[in-house]
Design goal:
The structure is a homodimer. By secondary structure, chain A is mainly α. Chain A has one domain: Orthogonal Bundle (Arc Repressor Mutant, subunit A), CATH 1.10.10.10. Chain A is built from six helices and two strands. In chain A, strands 1-2 form a two-stranded antiparallel sheet. In chain A, a hairpin with a 5-residue loop joins strand 1 and strand 2 (about 65). Chain A is elongated, with a radius of gyration of 18 Å. The first copy, chain A, starts with a helix and ends with a helix. The relative contact order of chain A is 0.17. Chains A and B meet through helix 1 and helix 5 of A and helix 1 and helix 5 of B.
Chain lengths: ~140, ~140
């Protein structure tokens, strides 16, 4: 079972932004901070901005910052958004795939329940709770603002 | 989130074998039954046999059949085996990956819990329970044998 590399990178980026929630970060800074090429970061930021997790500000003083407090962002919501075009197996594809065992197969419902259990587990954790231990003291005020 | 195509194909194959648990099926028959090229089926059967889910018998009357009753095979056990070389994200790799955020990151534990919730959900379902509804009547005796 794999998540997209873009999902991995996006979660890293959100954690780095959550560490300094009042500061805009440049794409270049973020690329270095998460160890990912800058062109990847640009795409990731666009996707996260469209979903309302981050906001971008143009200009010399601009950059990227969280659009919501880290305590309000559920990891499940982020992963649901980033993996929205992925299909767990062929029959989960929007077009139904071409599996010759549909529609009588009952494996699909079994996999769908497990998939939902995975996401429900992630829903129980906020971005704030993923920050490095001891790294939150200076931003509690921001997170609650 | 995706499973390997080989996992998808293997689950299909096990369902087809579970439908006629007392009969050996040829690789060619199975390839047609699950809609997958024969060379894929050969590899899948080898992997499932090594894990003790199926057994193979050589010769003209040989073929592949379940090595355990369908009611005794948990979908979670099958998926754990088939996805054993997969890493959910980079830091789940056996070598630890190269993510610059380790080791202080707490996302890993969050993802590990969700991964386990996915597998635990699959553990709650047997292969027998994935068979097409109404397709079990003729094999109850075999499954309990």
């Amino acid at each position: 079972m794999r998540l997209l590399a873009a999902t991995d990178f996006s979660l890293r980026l959100l954690i780095r932004l959550a560490e300094t929630p009042t500061r805009h970060r440049s794409t270049e800074h973020l690329a270095q901070a998460i160890g990912v090429p800058r062109n990847h970061v640009h795409k990731i930021v666009q996707d996260l901005a469209e979903a309302g997790f981050v906001r971008t500000i143009r200009g010399a003083q601009g950059g990227v910052m969280l659009a919501q407090p880290a305590a309000a962002i559920r990891i499940g919501a982020v992963v649901r958004h980033l993996e929205r075009a992925q299909s767990l197996v062929e029959c989960f594809r929007p077009d139904g795939g071409a599996c010759c065992m549909s529609p009588e197969c009952r494996l699909r419902a079994t996999l769908a329940r497990a998939h939902e259990a995975f996401l429900a587990s992630l829903d129980s954790t906020s971005l704030e709770e993923c920050l490095p231990a001891g790294g939150m003291q200076y931003m509690v005020g921001d997170a609650l603002a």
